[in-house]
Design a protein that fits this description.
With 59 residues, the protein is mostly helical. The protein is 66% helix and 0% strand. The termini are far apart.
Length: 59
């Protein structure tokens, strides 16, 4: 299976969304499904921003 996100990015997003302490003390398995969805949404936003920075805009 391909690695889609670096561990560093996952940790940053978890901290940003307030689940960093849960991950640190109990692991990723203790993160609620709602928070996992929020993490995925945040990761997609980061990916979209990175893509927009690399792709020249055409109008």
């Amino acid at each position: 299976m391909a690695k889609l996100m670096s561990e560093e990015l996952k940790q940053q997003l978890a901290s940003k969304l307030g689940v960093g302490p849960t991950v640190a003390s109990e692991g990723w398995g203790s993160v609620s499904s709602r928070d996992c969805g929020r993490l995925v949404q945040a990761a997609l936003e980061v990916a979209e921003q990175n893509l927009q920075q690399r792709t020249p805009q055409r109008y």
